[in-house]
Amino acid sequence: MKNRKSNIAMGFVIFIAGLMILMSCGSSSPITRSYEKVSEEYPGAWEWCELADDGSYLTIDTNPYDEDEYISLDARDMVGDINKELGFPESVMARMDNTRNMDGMQDYEGKDVRAQWTFHPNRGLIVIYELKGK
Asked: For the segment 70-110, what is each residue's pLDDT rounded down to a tens digit?
């Protein structure tokens, strides 16, 4: 009887450990989850986005071909949608929209993700979302 109880207990421990491993493999970073949710609305996102395989960063470039005085409105709108998905306050998008080239690199630290951005009239707005601690 004692041996059977210990086998049941051991089986339960193995089951829970396996379940935890499966859950961790299926989880993704907040950046990846936000990108996957938002990118469905932007079929051309591959042109202006770069998502790391490990989900540690996402870059969005509103002028990926560096055309003079051009900004992809879809890329800019995607930045706003990613910000919302990450739980950033609306003031972050306002700061991004009002960044000047002389302001240099700006940043905002959310709970799990840091955003850094810069703007140049000939290169547009470039935003980098990065997992904190990576």
From this structure: 999 999 999 999 999 999 999 999 999 999 999 999 999 99
Cα three-residue angle 87-63-93, rounded to 5 degrees: 25
Cα distance between residue 116 and residue 101, in whole Å: 14
User: pLDDT tens-digit profile of 29-38?
Assistant: 999 999 999 9
The DSSP 8-state label assigned to residue 79 in this structure reads: H
Q: How far apart are CA 97 and CA 125, in angstroms?
A: 8
Element (H, E) at 118: strand 113-120
- pLDDT for residue 10 is more than 70: no
d(C-alpha 87, C-alpha 101), whole Å: 26
